[in-house]
Amino acid sequence: MRPIVLKSPPKLFFGAMHPSLLPHHVPIAVTYRGGHPENIHHGSVAVVDAQGRLIASAGDVISPMFTRSCLKPFQALPLIAQWSNRYGLEEPDLALLCASHNGEPMHADRVAALLSRFGAGESDLACGTHAPYFFGATGQTPAPGARYTSLHHNCSGKHGGMLMLAHALGAPLAGYLDVDHPVQQQIVQSVSHFSGLPADKLIRGTDGCSAPNYAMPLEALARAFAKLTLTEPDPIYGDTPHRIAKAMSKHPEWVSGQGRNDLTLMNAGGGDWVSKVGADGVQVLASFSRGVAIAAKCSDGMLTPLMVAFVSVLEQLGWLDEGRRAALSSLTPPPLKNSAGIEVGDMRPVVTLRFGS
């Protein structure tokens, strides 16, 4: 009997045959033990300006990769552009609508207050429930018997915004995550507009919070974030993109929370950086003064090597001074020690940007 050979089906990417089913990532961070490489973390980086030019890169910037929570500013845009005055949305509210928050009391309470403005409540949220990120980020332990609701879910602000948009549109609150619901139809148009990718070509998946999520090249994700830095009005969404980014940068505690990387990054930026992390190793950051954004992916989904590489990227771009290096020092892990407290290794960045398109 002849052996059966399984061939991977060809992958279509915007009408062209993609060379591989898997992204062509490169090493971005390495764990060394005794000075010898032990664990190699792969990934990719795209650096794009507000005119859409790729100015630096590493690895694969054209294969579609899921954006996860990096998508949140563009999911919030349709609501904020049309209805922020109707619902009295303030800057911290705008930041919270784009948050992957810690589930601290201030976060849960503010989401509940937003829902109450249009007669909704915790039971309307379809994001599910998990223990607040606060505990993992700060090394603390939940109190015995503590109970948490969907308000404490890191995506409850995003879901509250989707429910608010449904209310504003006169659409049912139930089913607001369905891809054919008016809320999701407006969101996919926003994602398409800022990424520059046709809506019917976006690759759709389901996020950890059950909302539709879209995969796109890192180049397109960085392009979308770079557009948030522009002060001139967008032809469709006016000044809302810039307002959202500035609100996030000014109020990172509402986007993130204690012990989280987005809070650290935006504080280090001193008002010039807006950043957003996504689950499974995605990070985006844009500089207002430069009109440039960075999008990065760690292929194994791990945050620590992603941050080690990301700080190196900021260094290679010349965005760090002594103050910012010190402010970002917590993102670099200390030397590895074994159970006896002996130092046995460390993690180092190996990502190298290639400048030019």
The SSE order reads: EEEEEEHHHHHHEEHHHHEEEHHEEE
Residue ranges: pLDDT <50 for 5 or more in a row? 1-10
The number of helices is 12
This entry's quaternary arrangement is single chain
CA-to-CA gap between the ends?
Answer: 50 Å
Cα-atom radius of gyration: 21 Å
Morphology: globular
Give helix % range.
25-40%
Global structural class: alpha+beta
The major beta sheet can be summarized as:
9 strands, antiparallel
Write down how many β-strands occur, each being a DSSP E stretch of 2 or more residues: 14
What proportion strand? 15-25%
Mean pLDDT: 94
Structure description:
- The termini are far apart.
- Strand 12 (336-337) and strand 13 (343-349) form a beta hairpin.
- Residues 1-10 have low confidence and may be disordered.
- The protein contains 12 helices and 14 strands.
- The protein has 357 residues and is of the alpha+beta class.
